[in-house]
Specification:
binds zinc ion
Length: 114
């Protein structure tokens, strides 16, 4: 399950930022569709890996999945790529570049003192 690896990497980034006197109330994450993250699996992996850790008690995990973005090499327009259809919706060209969809970032994190 590749979500476990993602959750582990996420926690390795977060752990040094919060000591035992803090609690993380909310984490907002953003992934590009090409990262193939399944929200439910990531939530499950996260709750298993943080079980018993008071810093992560009742932490709300918000996961946003961004669509794949493409740019047409002919008309230069940018657009969302739906269902992996590699064709420009404006001019019909199939010569397009992938410009987004690989994002993997922590957007926001809310921490409170306990
Ligand atoms: Zn085009």
């Amino acid at each position: 399950m590749h979500e476990t690896g993602i959750a582990k990497r996420l926690l390795s980034v977060i752990h040094p930022m919060v000591d035992e006197k803090k609690r993380i109330t909310r984490i907002k994450l953003r992934f590009g569709e090409l990262k193939m993250v399944q929200k439910e699996l990531l939530e499950t992996a996260f709750s298993i890996l943080t079980r018993g850790d008071k810093r992560f008690r009742d932490t709300i995990l918000e996961i946003e999945i961004r669509p794949v973005r493409g740019k047409c090499n002919i008309c230069r327009k940018e657009f969302d790529i739906k269902n992996f259809e590699m064709r420009c919706p404006f001019c019909g060209e199939t010569s397009i570049d992938i410009t987004g969809g690989y994002e993997s970032e922590i957007v926001e994190m809310e921490v409170e003192d306990v």
